[in-house]
Amino acid sequence: MFFPEYRPRRLRRTEALRAMVRETELSVKHLIYPLFVCPGKKVREEVSSMPGVFRLSVDEAVREAKEVYELGLPAVILFGIPEKKDELGSEAYAKKGIVQKAVSAIKKEVPELIVVTDVCLCEYTSHGHCGIIKNGEVDNDLTLEQLARTAVSHARAGADIVAPSDMMDGRVARIREALDEAGFQNVAILSYAVKYCSSFYGPFREAADSAPQFGDRRSYQMDPANAREALREASLDIEEGADIIMVKPAMPYLDIIRALREEFNHPIAAYQVSGEYAMIKAAARLGWLDEERVMLESLLSIRRAGADIIITYFAKEVAKKLKSL
Questions:
Q1: What single DSSP character describes residue 66?
Q2: Tens-digit pLDDT profile for residues 202-233
Q3: Which domains does the chain have, with CATH numbers?
Q4: Rama region for 218: left / alpha / beta (φ>0; ψ in -120 to 50; rest)
Q5: In the 8-state DSSP scheme, what is residue 223?
Q6: 20 to 30 A Cα–Cα from 299, which one of 144, 207, 268, 276?
Q7: C-alpha to C-alpha distances, 3 to 8, 10, 11, 12, nearest whole angstrom
Q8: What confidence tens digit (pLDDT) does each residue in 122-159 have?
C-alpha cells in the first residue's frame, strides 16, 4: 500500500490508538535495582558521580529494599564494599561478609523480594582485579575456586540468584557444580556472559571502590570491537548451566542484545551501567535533556532490542513514574 491509501499516522493520532499498537512494553517487573552495601550503621553516602545513588550500611540497605518492594520492583542486586581487602579477596566469601549480612537481613525483612548477588573479587582484592594475581597476571583457574566459594556463601545467606561478573573462563560450570554439591540446586545463575571492557564503568568503580591498581581488565573482559565473540561467550555460559545471560553495558551494545535474542531462547538481561546513568543525569542537570523522557526512552530501547530484564539505577524513578500513570 502507498500514500494516500495508507497513512501510518492514522494509528498515531491519539494515545489510546498508540497504546493499542505499541510493540514493546516497559514495566517494573522487568527491572532490577542495584544496591551498594558498606560497613557501619545509618550510613547513606551519595556517590558523587551518580546523583541519587548511595553507599548504604546494612540497616539502610534493608530500608531501601523495603521501599523497592513497595514500589513493585521484583529484585535488587547487591554489591559489597568490605571493611578490609587482601590479595585473595577473602572477604568475598567470609561468613559474616558485608554481602552475606545484607542478604540475610533483607531476606528476613522482605522475604518475597528477589535478592541477586554480584559474584566477583574486584571489590575485595587489594589490587582491584577480578581474580587472583600470579606472576603479574590474573590466574583463571585459581580464581574459579574463590568465585565458587563466594557463590556458595551467598546462597547460604539466602540469595535467590548469583551473578558472576568476573569473566573468567569456566566460572559458570564451577559455580553450578559448587552450588549443587552444597545443596543449592534451586539457586539460579545470572551470568554476565557478555561483559565488555568498557569505559562506561567509571562511576561504578568510584561507588564500589573497585578500580584496578595496575593495568586494566582487557585480558579477561571482552573487546568492544567484537560481536561474533559475544555469541560464543553466551553459548559457553548456557552450556555450563547459566539460567539467565546478560550483556553489559546496554545502550552502546543494543546490537549485541538483539543478536543474542535472535540466537538464544534463554532469558536475556542487560545492565544499564553507571556511565549510561551518569550521562543522562549530568545532561539533565545542565538542562540539555528532559531526564524523565530520556530515562524512559533509553530503557524502552533496551527492551526493544530484546532484553527481558534490565539492571538500572533508574529503577526506583521508573517505578514511581509508572505508578503515577
A1: H
A2: 888 787 676 777 667 777 889 999 999 999 99
A3: 26-324 (3.20.20.70)
A4: alpha
A5: P
A6: 207
A7: 9, 12, 14, 16
A8: 889 988 788 888 888 889 999 999 999 999 999 999 99
Please confirm, yes or no, whether 195 is among the known catalytic residues.
yes
Cell numbers 595496575: residue: 214
3-state secondary structure 5-40: CCCHHHHHCCHHHHHHCCCCCCCHHHEEEEEEECCC
Element (H, E) at 138: strand 137-139
Mention every residue, 6+ apart, whose C-beta is less than 8 A from residue 26. Answer: 296, 299, 300, 303, 318, 322
Is 206 marked as a binding-site residue? no
Is 233 annotated as contributing to ligand binding?
A: yes
Residue type, 165: S
Crossing angle (nearest 10°) for helices 58-70 and 98-109: 40
Question: 85, 107, 195, 316: which one is catalytic?
Answer: 195
Give residue 294's identity as a one-letter amino acid code: V
- 55 assigned ligand-binding residue: no
